């Protein structure tokens, strides 16, 4: 069943149009990867879903209901969370304090679900070990785990991940991506923006490629070839497989 979808999604920064009629959907428990070069519109797509861009209501739908332009806090209340590029943690606060902010917000918004601090510690054991450490003193990979954990503790039905591998060591990237199947097992749908094409393919069910704000390729991750991706990524024919 489709949980989240976009329909002719258009987004602008002033006079600059960043997205041109983007149609993307994700089902319950499915992982969709969004790939494309820098400036292709990937982060803008996530921002448009989260109410950070001015878009028409019918351009973004949750369970078939138009929600485009809904403020970010209400999107979280509806069950859509984002792991933002750059992590955006609360410096000067410990790991636990950052996580408890999300838990308190979920309580205020009436969000319930399967994610608890204890379960998160099982997913990322280092977060229990570093519970009292201020987040600015963590490694980049550990900070990313806090950012993912904070999003999960909001009890999302849809998790948006923006460049979660950026700047991290390969070992840490593998550890973070190894957590995605358990997140999906909760029934959570995932849209992940990823620069590493191989990683995007291995971590997702379907891939969408963006070029200059348009979808140039979509298909099952296991079926799309590198040649097709290269053509879509750099401006070849608009392929659909």
From TrEMBL:
Annotated GO molecular function terms are: ATP binding
Which Gene3D superfamilies does the annotation name? Answer: P-loop containing nucleotide triphosphate hydrolases
Work out whether the entry's keyword set contains Phosphoprotein.
no
A Pfam family that this protein carries is: ABC_tran
**Domain of life, per lineage:** Bacteria
* UniProt keyword annotation of Nucleotide-binding present: yes
**Which positions fall inside the ABC transporter domain?**
4-237
- Keywords from the UniProt entry: Amino-acid transport, ATP-binding, Nucleotide-binding, Transport
* Family recorded in the similarity comment: Belongs to the ABC transporter superfamily.
> What is this protein called in UniProt?
ABC transporter ATP-binding protein
């Amino acid at each position: 069943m489709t949980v989240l979808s976009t329909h002719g999604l258009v987004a602008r920064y002033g006079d600059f149009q960043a997205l041109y009629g983007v149609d993307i959907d994700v089902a319950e428990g499915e992982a969709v990867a969004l790939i494309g070069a820098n400036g292709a519109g990937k982060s803008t797509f996530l921002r448009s879903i989260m109410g950070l861009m001015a878009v028409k209501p019918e351009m973004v739908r949750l369970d078939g209901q138009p929600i485009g332009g809904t403020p970010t806090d209400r999107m979280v209340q509806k069950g859509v969370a984002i792991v933002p590029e750059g992590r955006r943690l609360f410096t000067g606060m410990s790991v636990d304090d950052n996580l408890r902010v999300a838990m308190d917000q979920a309580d205020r918004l009436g969000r319930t679900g399967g994610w608890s601090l204890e379960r998160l510690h099982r997913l990322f054991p280092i977060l229990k070990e570093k519970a009292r450490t201020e987040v600015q003193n963590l490694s980049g990979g550990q900070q990313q785990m806090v950012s993912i954990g904070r999003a999960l503790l909001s009890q999302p039905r849809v998790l948006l991940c923006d460049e979660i591998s950026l700047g991290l060591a390969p070992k840490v990237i593998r550890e973070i991506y190894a957590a995605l199947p358990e997140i999906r097992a909760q029934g959570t749908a995932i849209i992940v923006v990823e620069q590493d094409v191989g990683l995007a393919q291995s971590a997702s069910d379907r891939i969408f490629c963006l070029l200059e704000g348009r979808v140039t390729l979509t298909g099952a991750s296991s079926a799309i070839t590198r040649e097709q991706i290269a053509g879509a990524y750099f401006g070849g024919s608009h392929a659909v497989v």
